[in-house]
Amino acid sequence: MKCGLCEIVERKQDIVYEDETLVAVALESASTIGQISVFPKQHFTILEMVPPPVLEKCAVLANKVGVAAFEALGVQGTNLLIRNGLGSGQAVPHFSIEIIPRTENDGLPLSWDPQPAPEDELEVTLALFKEELKNLKEVKQEEKQSEKQGEKQSEKQTEGESSPSRKDNYLLKSLRRVP
Ligand SMILES: [Zn+2]
Question: How many A from CA of 99 to the centre of ligand 1?
Fold first, then answer.
């Protein structure tokens, strides 16, 4: 069975913009009038699965839709929302960016009171993030090196995990978030 967004693409329903890769659609149920959903025609469940060139196109189109909302609707601002994976409120398993036009006092409850974080918890969280992001940098360098060095890289014993297994592991972890 096709997902709701794939069906929209197939039926060419409520589409305000379309090219080879992407569509921009005015969904029937929206948080504000003029809310537009930008998504790839191809079915990608979550952000982590969207190839970077497609993601880049999504971001550029989301920006253009935002500009259109300023020009056509005279809105005062936009919220760009990505509900990504379980726990985020993602209802349809197809990656999308929502462009939500905003005006002052429109009553849309998208704000929250920032909660103070316990200092030790914050320290642990920051350390975990730094570790993860450091690994990401290493993976990129490894990929670049292996591109340059070709076979040499595979002969050489790399410390810890090699970049492909790290990548696989990351995708495996991502699957746990699939709605
Ligand atoms: Zn889909």
Answer: 19
- What is the full DSSP assignment across 34-73? T-EEEEESS---SGGGS-HHHHHHHHHHHHHHHHHIIIII
Residue 98 CA to its chain's centroid (Å):
11
Write down the number of H helices and E strands in the chain.
5, 5
Residue 102 CA, ligand 1 centroid: distance in Å: 27
Report how far ligand 1's centroid is from the alpha carbon of 9 (Å).
9
CA of residue 25 to ligand 1 center, whole Å: 14
Average pLDDT score over residue span 155-178? 58
What would the pLDDT profile of 77-117 be if each residue is shown by its tens digit? 999 999 999 899 998 999 999 999 999 888 888 888 888 88
Which residue's entry shows tokens 């959903």?
A: 37
Neighbours of 105 (CB within 10 A): 7
Q: Tell how far the Cα of 136 is from the centroid of ligand 1, in angstroms.
A: 28
CA nearest 61: which of 44, 30, 95, 37?
37
pLDDT greater than 70 at residue 74:
yes
Distance 8 CA to ligand 1 centre (A): 9
- Structure tokens of 62? 């989301």
What angle in degrees, to the nearest 10, is found between the helix axes of 119-149 and 163-175?
Answer: 130
| Ligand 1 centre distance from Cα of residue 5 (Å) | 5
